[in-house]
Specification:
Elements: H1 8-19, H2 24-35, H3 65-71, H4 83-87, H5 90-102, H6 105-134, H7 146-166, H8 170-180, H9 193-199
The chain binds a DNA duplex (16 and 16 nucleotides) through residues 60, 77-78, 109-110, 112-114, 116-118, 120-121, 125, 145-147.
Length: 205
DNA sequence: TAGGCCATCTGGTCCT
DNA sequence: AGGACCAGATGGCCTA
């Protein structure tokens, strides 16, 4: 995957110009949507290449924020967890925690911040899951890491853009890339052999 | 066993 | 003031 890196700085201006045509409201809406993303609802709707069929390998990714709240560890962050709390009935448990919390306002704030941070990271991870469903993967390929997902997405978008600009048939364009290697307009060599190989799996209609 | 990847906690900074 | 965002630290899990 490392070989898919290319000189992004050189193309940054052009790339931003390209994406600048996108409605910013659409981008923000997409971000909002990603926050509420539920993998289960999009199974089979996204990547035709994903070997996982868009099913998250992380069951947690399908939790709602409400679920997360109810599952969050209630004891104060940084404090020793009283194991007896875990065995107590919910009512007594929460009552004692409230009493404890009232004595440590800072820790209560810190705990609330931890929960918010976990929610935030969960939403980011959901967005990564969705992105994984949109990038080409081999059927036998293991789940992409976050950094690999980002790099592959960047290369994939760039290649799709090149195909659009060229006006060529996508399949023949990819075949050409496979044969001759891939160069962008600034002649910087993009070693995207992995990407073009992935794209060769696509059944172009 | 080392290295990669990840989740979580935490404190700092910025923004509303 | 409180929330969002960020980056560093830490520890767990997995794989070569």
């Amino acid at each position: 995957m490392e070989d898919m890196l290319f000189d992004f700085d050189q193309d940054a201006a052009a790339d931003f110009a390209f994406w600048g045509q996108m409605d910013p409201n659409f981008q923000f809406q997409s971000q909002l949507d990603s926050l509420l993303f539920d993998c289960g609802t999009v199974v089979g709707q996204l990547s035709p290449w994903s070997s996982f069929g868009c099913q998250s390998v992380f069951p947690d990714a399908q939790l709602t924020f409400t679920d997360l709240d109810s599952q969050s560890p209630q004891p104060e962050a940084g404090a020793e967890v009283d194991s007896s709390l875990l065995d107590e009935p919910q009512e007594i448990n929460t009552h004692r925690q409230r009493r404890l919390a009232s004595h440590h306002p800072y820790k209560v704030q810190r705990h609330a911040a931890n929960i918010r941070e976990r929610k935030r990271m969960l939403s980011i991870n959901s967005a990564f899951e969705e992105l994984r469903c949109h990038v080409p993967t081999f059927p036998y390929e293991k789940r992409l890491s976050k950094i690999d997902t980002l790099r592959l997405a960047i290369a994939y978008i760039a290649l799709l853009r090149e195909i659009l600009i060229s006006g060529c048939d996508p399949k023949s364009y990819v075949d050409e890339c496979m044969k001759n290697g891939y160069k962008n307009q600034t002649n910087a060599i993009w070693n995207t052999s992995d990407l073009t190989a992935r794209l060769s799996w696509i059944k172009w209609d």
